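Limitations

Structures in this collection are predictions, not experimental determinations, and the ligand pose is part of the prediction. Treat each record accordingly. The example that follows, with pyridoxal-5'-phosphate as the small molecule, is included so readers can see exactly what is and is not provided: the inputs are given verbatim, and the output is the predicted complex.
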Amino acid sequence: MISLAIPNLTGNEKKYLDICIDTGFVSSVGRYVTQFESMVADATGSKYAIATSAGTTGLHVALTAVGVRRDDLVILPTFTFIASANAIRHCGADPWLMDINETDWCLDPQKVKEALDTQCEIQNGIVIHKKTRRRVAAIMPVYTLGNIPDMEEFRSIADKYHLPLVVDAACAIGAKYKGVDLGMLGDLSILSFNGNKTITCGGGGAVLSNNEEMASLVRHLTTTARVWPEYDFDMVGFNYRMTNIQAAVGCAQMERVDEFVSRKRKIRDYYYKSFSQLTEQKITLFPTSDGSSCWFSGIVLQEGQGMDEVKSLCNKMKEKDIEARPFWKPVHLQEPYRGCPIEDTNVTDALWDRIITLPCSTNITDNELETVSNTVKYFLKENFF
Ligand SMILES: Cc1ncc(COP(=O)(O)O)c(C=O)c1O
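Predicted complex:
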């Protein structure tokens, strides 16, 4: 089977795991956690990286740290993995759902600006959503596919409204924006090290920050807000720490981060080149921004086609031992988020059910890439739908 996105564990993972077991450091204390944080900070241009048990818990703690509270609203693209919305809900808040750009599949800053300008008022320095009278507490762009949107525009919107930028960069390790590393862009940015990510710890996450105070608050919250050395706690904290075992795998992975990101970009380039001659069907390729980390690659079926055709092609591919899958179903179509404040979702609605992700593991061979692309082309040519 040529899998969609599987871990590449052929480096020092086993060796470092053995050391954890031999030394007994398997829990949340141990040298790998500190080492992993420093490697992640270096690779993302951040002053501080705080390792967490998952990307979702990283998002929850980051939103808590910037002050998101019950009944607040957080601006979120509807086209994202549901974990982004869940983290907002875990704070007792709701996402205010907005649309994406066709060019990068990320939150559209112009639409965010327009919504804030026309639908909010400022009261005592607080942004109030006029229709619901709820406070808008943060903006959460998502770096879809490892693409970074116009962060200069987001920064100016965030500054104008004094809103924090909490970035869901779950799949974006290795991405840059105009040559600037991703850790320098948001107030807090969150990575995921889940099994399908470019770098994995099995499961895990990290919160990135350049602000010392904010970084210590995040760390404090992830470690039950304990005030050492006694059993004193000064806030309601969380047990969101990464374990030494996860970090041991993470350190071995981070040793190869440049190699892995470069391979992801080559996979993107391969599919771009390979499908460029395809004229029978007007499929398009996933969009890619300059400096994208190219987490996932794939195709978009032509207008008028939808989930039936996507599933049908994925099933055909499966018969040929190739894994291909649909992508994110938007948040506004998910049961728990019906009724959340929402703006127009035209781009998302016209797009999401035509997307097919194709195999893009960092250890996929060139021969396998050729097999995948020839198989897709064969089925499209046969007009199997
Ligand atoms: C955009 C996005 N946000 C959040 C997450 C959640 O990360 P985790 O699975 O590590 O909790 C993921 C991936 O799984 C993701 O793709």
